[in-house]
From TrEMBL:
Domain (Membrane insertase YidC/Oxa/ALB C-terminal) ranges: 29-239
PANTHER family in UniProt: CYTOCHROME C OXIDASE ASSEMBLY PROTEIN COX18, MITOCHONDRIAL, OXA1
Name of the protein described by the UniProt record: Membrane protein insertase YidC
Positions of transmembrane segments: 20-42, 153-171, 201-225
Keywords on record: Cell membrane, Chaperone, Membrane, Protein transport, Transmembrane, Transmembrane helix, Transport
Origin species: Streptomyces albidoflavus
Subunit and partners: Interacts with the Sec translocase complex via SecD. Specifically interacts with transmembrane segments of nascent integral membrane proteins during membrane integration.
Pfam families: 60KD_IMP
Protein family (similarity comment): Belongs to the OXA1/ALB3/YidC family. Type 1 subfamily.
Entry keyword annotation includes Protein transport: yes
Keyword Coiled coil in record: no
């Protein structure tokens, strides 16, 4: 039995367990539960990223001072900044680790519902659906089957609505944090080399999830939406004691 076959059996079996509660949406519920399990496994990394971000917030005045000192020498500024973080045992990129560690789970879910066969046998998971939408279909299939407001399309509209709501929340929260960060460093938005460009696109990143949901199989889209919602709640909890300058690198 291949790895993918074993995982397909796991999802199928979990769906059978959830069927008395979730009915015909039991496999979709199994995907949501699997996503929550993955996020629980990654939680220690998320907590470490939060601690690292708090340390970076604490170091912002020192970084701003380095920038002022070496404003005419970008290479020396970058070196001095990295040396400061190294001395304090802080990684400026630790915030990306939780996302990177989730990629294998996402691609596993994608492969599972994008393949007609698993282990040389027909992929029976493709016969499952979330209400009217097959888990192996994509948004273009929903548009071809009844249009945007058809039974199939309404499932995607609900997912898009959740993503937009979370994205708007993240946008407002990130803008507030960036403003607080700029105030902490006397308006120096380039306190860390290259951070100015990141500050411009950071508030918009959550909206990119819409493109992912629209182009991957519905099962993978469920994983993405569940993980996105989890991330919003998780960051609200983990960063609740840090009102200023938090979440840019996260």
């Amino acid at each position: 039995m291949s790895f993918f076959s074993a995982f397909a059996d796991l999802v199928d079996g979990l769906g059978d367990v959830l069927e008395p509660v979730a009915g015909t949406a039991s496999t979709a519920a199994a995907i949501v539960l699997f996503t929550a399990f993955v996020r629980l496994l990654v939680l220690p990394l998320s907590r470490a990223a939060a601690r690292g971000q708090k340390a970076r917030t604490r170091l912002q005045p020192q970084v701003a001072a380095l920038r002022k000192k070496y404003k005419k020498n970008p290479e020396r500024l970058q070196k001095a900044t990295l040396e400061l973080y190294a001395a304090e045992k802080v990684s400026p990129f630790s915030g990306i680790l939780p996302s990177l560690c989730q990629l294998p789970a996402f691609f596993l879910m994608y492969h599972l519902f994008a393949s007609a066969e698993i282990g040389g046998a027909p992929n029976t998971l493709l016969g499952h659906s979330l209400f009217a939408a097959p888990l192996g279909d994509r948004w273009k299939d929903a548009l071809a089957d009844g249009g945007m407001f058809g039974a199939h399309g309404q499932v995607y509209l609900a997912l898009f609505a959740v993503v937009v709501a979370v994205a708007v929340y993240n946008y407002r929260r990130t803008k507030r944090q960036l403003a607080a960060s700029a105030a902490l460093t006397a308006g120096d938005t380039e306190a860390m080399p290259g951070m100015g460009a990141m500050n411009k696109i950071a508030p918009l990143m959550s909206f990119m999830t819409l493109f992912t949901v629209g182009f991957v199989p519905l099962a993978a889209a469920l994983y993405v939406v569940t993980s996105t919602l989890w991330t919003a709640v998780e960051r609200t909890v983990l960063y609740r004691e840090e009102p200023a300058g938090v979440a840019v690198a996260a």
